Amino acid sequence: MVEQGRGLRQSVERQAATASGYPMLLLLVGAVATAVVGLTFVEHQPAVGATFLVAGAVVAAFVAIGFFMLQPNQAAAITLFGSYKGTDRASGLRWVLPWMARRKVSVRANNIISERIKVNDLRGNPIEMAAQVVWRVTDTAQALFDVDDYRAFVLVQIEAAVRTIGSRYPYDDFEHQEVTLRGNHDQVGGELRDELIARLLVAGIMVDECGFTHLAYAPEIAQAMLRRQQAAAVVAARQTLVAGAVGMVEMALEQLSAKNVVELDDERRAAMVSNLMVVLCGERDTQPVVNTGTLYQ
């Protein structure tokens, strides 16, 4: 059965007309027994013996050729002279007419970790990416007849989807205002899954789970980007330190004035602010200096 869509003949899975193999196994045993009985009659009653022998052998051969076995989560596509006749998903011993071909396909979950590929992110920076994808066949007719090799098709589409998602976002945003590959794993992973589902739909394949297993700057810019990250971290730390120091100086001056501990004019206030900022923002331990004079001498 096929459907017409966008100029393509799309296959659709349907149930095949197969039977359980156990009743046919009993028939096979009966046919073999008939042939054995005919063999015993050949010497005394040649005509009867030959009839039983030939009939039993023909039926046994006919029945034996039609057997096939399906494991759990395994299916078999049935074709007749190149025409798709349906898919059998019932596990166990199965039987179909001998002239029908059976092509088995696994419908179990498959796990793939792609190769590391180099991609340019949204800002043009070269990065390395690799993805882990859990996929399974949901439509055996599409997987077998709409693409040449569905496993190779999955590998190619994973690489294409990773490149698409990798070029859609920047690797990192030092100002934390954009969606990034490094900082938004769940969102980016969800978009990767949606991209893969859309690409693998033609092959009857569903993606259950996916995510990035490797994400890093390419070696040629890794050191430069590391220095940039370190510089940004230093700047951010300094900003936090200065903001805290200003708050502490302001609080100290307010409490000194409120409790009338000391009267400070503008020049002495400036000197105190300078000293406090040096103490609070300095990277080294401060050394006390005893001033025996005054600020104006």
Brief account:
With 297 residues, the chain is of the alpha+beta class. The chain has 7 helices and 12 strands.
CATH fold-level assignment of the largest domain:
Tetrahydropterin Synthase, Chain A
Number-wise, the strands total: 12
Terminal-residue CA separation = 103 Å
- How would a crystallographer describe the biggest sheet? 4 strands, antiparallel
Helix content: 40-55%
The CATH superfamily of the largest domain is identified as Band 7 domain
CATH architectural type of the largest domain? 2-Layer Sandwich
Q: Number of helical segments?
A: 7
What structural category do the secondary elements indicate? alpha+beta
Q: What average pLDDT do the residues reach?
A: 80
| Overall structural domain count | 3
- Principal-axis shape: rod-shaped
Order of helices and strands: EEEHHEEEEEEEEHHHEHH
Uncertain regions: pLDDT < 50 for 5+ in a row? 1-5
Beta content: 15-25%
Radius of gyration: 39 Å
Query: Given this structure, which CATH class of the largest domain is correct?
Result: Alpha Beta
Protein name: Regulator of protease activity HflC (Stomatin/prohibitin superfamily)
GO molecular function, one term: peptidase activity
Pfam families: Band_7
Domain Band: 65-229
